[in-house]
Write a structure and sequence with these properties.
The complex is a heterodimer of chains A (532) and B (1023). Chain A has 532 residues and is mainly alpha-helical. In chain A, 41% of the residues lie in helices and 5% in strands. Chain A starts with a helix and ends in a 16-residue tail after the last helix. Classes of the chains: A mainly alpha (532), B mainly beta (1023).
Amino acid sequence: MKNSLRFTWFSALVALTLPLACTDLTESPKSQVTPGGFFRTEAEVVSGVAGVYNLLRNDGTLWGYYNMSEISTDEMIVPTRGNDWKDNGRWLELHRQTWQAGSPAGLDDIERIYRDSYVAIARSNILLDRLKSVTITNQASIEAELRTLRAFFYYLLLDDFGGVPLATDGAVVPRPRVTRDSLFRFIESELLAVRGTLPLNRPANEWGRVRRGVADAILASIYLNAGVYAKNTGVSATAYNTCLGVTVTGGDACAMAIAYSDSILNSGAYSLAASWRSNFTADNRNSLENIFVARNAPITDLGLNFPMRALHYNQFTPAPWNGFSAVAEAYQAFDSADQRRQIFLVGQQYQLERLAAGDTVPVNDRGGSPLVFTDTIGDATLAAENEGARIMKYPIDPAHVAQNNGNDFVFFRLGEIYLIKAEAQNEQTAGSAPALVLVNQLRARVFSPVKPRVTIDRAAILQERLFEMTGEGKRRTDLIRHGKYTTWTEATINGHNAATEDFRILLPIPQSEIDANPLLCQNPGYGGTACP
Amino acid sequence: MRLVRYVVPILAFLSVMAIPLAAQGTGAIRGEVRDSVTKQALAGVIIRIQGTQRETQTAPDGSYSFADVPSGTVTLRATRIGFGPQTQSATVSNGGSAEALFALAPQASILEPVVVTGYGTTRREAITGSVATVDPGTANVGVINNANQMIQGRVAGVEIVQNNGEPGAGAQVRIRGSTSIGASNEPLYVIDGIPVSNDPTQGEGLGVSGTSPSLARSPLALLNPSDIGSITILKDASATAIYGSRGANGVILIETKKGTVGSSTIEYDAYVATASPAKRLDVLTGSEYRSFIQSQVALHNTNPLKGLDSSYITALGTANTDWAGATTRSAVTQNQNLRFSGGSDVTRYLASLNYMNQQGVALSNGMKRYQGRLSATHQAFNSRLRIGLNVTASQSNDDYITFENTGGFEGGVFENVATFNPTRPVTVTDSTGTHFYEIGPGSQSVRNPVALEKQLSDFGTTNRTLGNMSADFDLTTSLTARINVGVDKSTGLRQIYFPRSSPAGAEFGGLARQGNYSSQSRTLQAQLTFRHDFGGVHSFDVVGAYEWTQLDRDSVIAEARNFLTDLFTFNNMGAGTVQVNPVSGGVTDRWISFLSRANYGYKEKYFLTGVVRYDGRSSFAEGHKWTLFPGISGSWHLSQESFMSNSPFSDLRVRVGYGVVGNPGAPAYSSLVTFGNEKYVFGTTPITAFTPNNIGNPNLTFERTSQVDVGVDYGLMQNRLSGSIEYYIKNTTDLLLRHKVSQPSAVQDRLENIGSVKNHGIELTLDALPISRSDFTWRAGINVSFERNTAQNIGGGAISFGTVSGQGQSGQNAERLASGYALGAFYGPVFVGVDSAGKQQFSCSSGTTCVGGITTDLKDATRSVIGNPNPSMTLGFHSEISKGRFDFSLLVRGAFGQDVFNNTALVYSTKGNALQGKNFLRDALTDPIGLREASIFSSRWIEDGSFLRLQNVTLGYTFDIPKGLGSARTARLYVSGDNLLLLTGYSGLDPEVYANAGLVSRNIDYLSYPRPRTVTAGVRVAF
């Protein structure tokens, strides 16, 4: 009895003390980093910076921004082929410029641009906040690198949406939009502030990281587009929007576009590649012409998938998607002697990996007939699988791993700087002789025998930009500057064969973003709350 | 508030310490129990001395006895399944022996007298919440591999949809409908008092070419259905409040069988079953496909703008392959159980072994289970200390095939059944031998489905051990302390190889992957229970407990590609030249709780139950980790009142309950800012990029559901008719929903507590015993429930989900959530018809292409709610007849008013497939849609999914084995049929489907694994 009484008290004691013992619910993640105590060394901070770079090759840039820049223009179309590429009407919506804030394209491509650009900005802001409280090696240079990257992503938003919320710290709070002009001034001032701190060149193991040329290239580009970017109203959808007469830091925008182009041209860090094609091949990391690229590698999840988007199912392994095609007029505009026309695949098609190995193996379509790409597309809503030329600006990488090709995607290269300078010079002096020289320097390397232009004007420059830069994600910006974005036409049935509304030169703020941020207002023409 | 967690158990303890310990003389009680109708002796009747823990069972001759009963008047209660309970009082004198005789009346429903209600048991009369029980003996019929299947159709308000027809397939279990949008709607499972994880135990499979893998199988298969002793379902919040933060979706309590005293038995039961697909995809045969192509080419010849050019004829083969038939089979299942049990008054045991081998109706698909279980109980100190041990160890070996769950333009087995050219053969023989036919060498996006089944290896192995040990000690006759310690440990291995010789593996040069998952959950419960009956007037049943649970999960996945040979499969990953970065991860999750439940009864007429649970969960934000969940309920036993003595009701009670429960569905670390890793290349070397993968939410807390339940339990004609009627309203608030935040943000959304959902419903059950003669019994029951749910508020805007699968469907969602919508409402254009050009028409109200309210341009089509995937009524009907030595039972299930999105038909009844040399569903032959018209999601593909299914029919015969054959006493032979009949207007394979298409997606049918029709023959022998 005594024993069992003791047992009673013992159990009671156990029952009472257990609860007092363990009420700890603190969490400490095992497979993830929490920010406290991290980003203390240069290597740790650079690992964070790499996360900002990673968004250069993400959904927002190489999918959303790229698709919008190409497919909404006279360069590219994604026709519906039976069930293929119907995708809720999204692709033809892009091409016909019929998107809305809540339409399939609005909720997909347009949303990706907005979202991922801001993710990159947020990642930069978190690191810039952190750099205020730690001291690391190369602190100033890394800070300049982050501010340049952040300015680049703001530049993408400026280009597509106009003035958007501007944040320079890591707080997640609703913020209102700023005007397009003040976003322009912010990007400009940031780049001017840090360009001197950026290295002119980098060692091979830092290849892909920002150099001074990147800041200068963005500056040259925003100055050339100042007639669009630095204006809150009065951008014309149908007439050329000149940089001339727009005052920026240092003087007139056209003059500054030339000045920062010259800064690159005279830096000694870049030179035109002898072979134009080498700027885009799988080993284009060696090109001295490329200024700013998204690094890719033939490694799972780290490569470029452009061949998948364009090629026919039977041309490549793994089976591509047979989608993105050239607008017939774009292909037809090229001179047959222009080497740059070789980016188009037209006619009988071959297995491209075998072809790269020197082995000509014709392929058939899925019905079993020889696969012959036509340049025209009869009806974009009912296209056959062989219709449409394909743009292979970035040739396949023979060492590709599944979808991953090692070609770096080029955002800025010296060739474009030539054309920026030429266009700005032509604005200062119509028919400018030095501008003609620049254009002909680019033509000289792709024609044999040479076939120089004899005169120069705005139309010629826009056409040269098409020849030089088709498939580089610049066409939308160019057409808007030239007042041709809403008015270009093509023959394709149900394609873009009538002018669209003027307001299409700005994209709508995606409906999902407006739902999430009550302070956002909508661009004109898309309904919703108008901006003040 | 922190104090509460100490105060609750202390109060519970102190409140019972005041009871004086009485000491007096003892005597004995003995008696017997008979059937009041047949006058036969009843064995297995539980006799309990009320207000104490003492109970015993009657022997085969109906007799029972108690020794050492303290002298005085006690109340005895006799209960047995199928009979109404009875109480009697007996007066024990010191050293004397009292007698108490019972005559029990048959009763319609199978009601356990004592119900497991969580942290103890409750007398059925004292239950005030909404609690249902399933009799495992009745429910374990046909081929059943998991406890969920035993509940299906047997409990009102519990809807169980098996994902598909794959062996061991997971299920969507909804107790009183879906309440959550972003968090789980699955109930909590508690086995022998220990909450067990219902998360997959093996890693995900691998879809071909980036398509999603098929769904995980049910982790509940660890438990052999034959080992289940009782299943209780806690439905309303006043009942589930005892599980607090984990109670919002209802609780399923499972107790395993225990050894019984004095009866040393050996049981062997086994069955063999054969299954074949109840329905197959109805695609064109080879000759139909050929004549279709020929007709299209003829059309083209007369009008070059139409039809197909002649190259399509050249591409036709000469075979006639029925791919649906070639990929499926008559599958065999065998199941064997051996169980032995026995023991003394002091120590009892039960041990069982199970082997099950269930083939899938698709080739190369199935599951095997090896399982052993041991249960032991021991008593000491005059029964004051009771120790119990349960250990279940199981291994399941899963053989998977790659089939669709959701997907794009490529797919696994069933997509290729739908599309693979029927004029092509399964195998071809050439100079290199006989091999599978493929449309070309190397990687292909259209693949021979038989080859996919046979060439791709995908195996899963789970070893799971579930064990608990409990000790109960009676501190006084009324007060019991209990400690229960449990472990649920599983390790899962997934092994996959896509050979280089297969068109699915060619793109990688062969792909091998192995994934290891381990999960360990540890639980400690310390509990005090006070039970006392004051002179038959006031009865108290008070529980106070502390519980601590920690769940640790670890995983590692390795993958290699590009092998020289297929020889190694997944067994030598070092031989691949491409090594994919290995991935590993670890997560720890913790719950800590303090809880108390008090049940008070007055004169067996009025009962009141109060529950509080103070719950802490690690994954919520600092300062928001703890919440109090209360529940209160009461019942009035009207039929005990004297004014009811002349009423027709033999039993009538009214119950009202209210409670608040939670959904803890926030993954670990949801409230924290965390960084994961990506890769980026500087120079030529990939470097690790640490990037935020969660921006945290410093206010994150539990999702809460409050529920009011009103019920009436009734019995008529001496309970030969009985049942209940219940009505409930649930309001779920602070929904755990991933909500988009303002940009810039490093992650675009985070888990927030936003929005609310409202559910309400009515449940009716009726059980009847129309015939009860000594050699002929007929029992039948029906349960019906009506349920409605509506999203009240989801934080502004609308959320689209329910990804539409198939070629050309990306970016298309079938379901939408907005304020006022039913959860999972289908949303899209309204299909009107087809125009003369073969284009689909939709209704519209404005736009340039809108003429007379009709357009063929989706841009102008008006979108609206076009269907509701939630049934408005579910029904279960069961009937059991025993006549002499024969027994017969059937179970019918139905659900009505729900819509199903036939995603399979949307994508595969498209003649345009022929343009790509692909087959299609026969329905497309007769529709007027043009050859080149793309398939478009619209109301055309939303079908009524109402159905009535004959779930099971069983016929059994019991006989005595002649003595000469040893000591076997009885044997039962039976045949059973599962899914023999399905009445539905739904045109797809089966209206009960699930595809994981995001959030609360329901009823999306995309190329489901066919559901089998099964016939079983079995035998059960007891020695």
